[in-house]
């Protein structure tokens, strides 16, 4: 019978056998899958696993630092790479969602390739691919899919010529979480909401600037912290704030303001394919709205998205 413990034991033994003294590079995203894959590989080959965590400047507030700290705490051999400016430069002037996704995918590959080259004699690319990613070959999600869609752009980067090791490719998401728990990975990583690879770039409608990222990070942090302190974070499948390219009139003291709108999104779902908007308590929404408008400069209006998927999608881009 399948149990998380037996999976951990047999997988670590099999990875040891397969990899021997070889080196592996793996890109960590802060998400559940890549984290569990990394810890399994770390148990099997220790310091021969070289993890790379890229700061694309599109993560949640303080996320890069705090997740990097957790990874180090777990004993992973990890390098954090500040590539914020490279991503902002590539995104400059782009407002079409697919162009933004492509630019982010391209820069990620460039940065990752530069870093992979620093690891002498690396033989393998580790990936957190899970079973649904394998069967859903048309999936638009995840680093492997991002990489696939770039196959035909000017030849393969060197790291994509490496042999691939994917220790989770027979598991479903709930099994990955159980394996993560059996490995002792923190709930702070295992219990987190899904977060898209292109990050806040697809939650800022239209063109990205570092200033808009900063505003959205502040609003999003207020939102998520309030979900946590109200005890509803774990009941929500995914939540996030969206920066709308709309200005509206407001009043602050005696002054008329003309500033942007932030939309709050929270959904219940099993797999992201369909989703219902969450009926968050009005009192909680009121508290979040007040806190955002009173504290985030540049935002004078907060709205709540009451659309389900289909026909809407979870993200706005
Ligand atoms: P939608 O907006 O299509 O989102 O209803 C479904 C799920 O997929 C995530 N998503 C993405 N994840 N790269 C990702 O890694 C992407 O480009 C992307 N677009 C959407 C979304 O956050 C939700 O969990």
From TrEMBL:
Binding site for ATP: 29-35
Residues annotated as transmembrane: none
Entry keyword set: ATP-binding, Glutamine amidotransferase, GMP biosynthesis, Ligase, Nucleotide-binding, Purine biosynthesis
Residues of the full protein shown: 193 to 509 of 509
Function: Catalyzes the synthesis of GMP from XMP.
Subunit organization: Homodimer.
Pathway stated in the Swiss-Prot or TrEMBL entry: Purine metabolism; GMP biosynthesis; GMP from XMP (L-Gln route): step 1/1
One Gene Ontology term of the molecular function aspect: GMP synthase (glutamine-hydrolyzing) activity
Native organism: Mucilaginibacter jinjuensis
Domain GMPS ATP-PPase: residue ranges: 2-192
Catalytic activity entry: XMP + L-glutamine + ATP + H2O = GMP + L-glutamate + AMP + diphosphate + 2 H(+)
Protein name per the record: GMP synthase [glutamine-hydrolyzing]
EC number, as in UniProt: 6.3.5.2
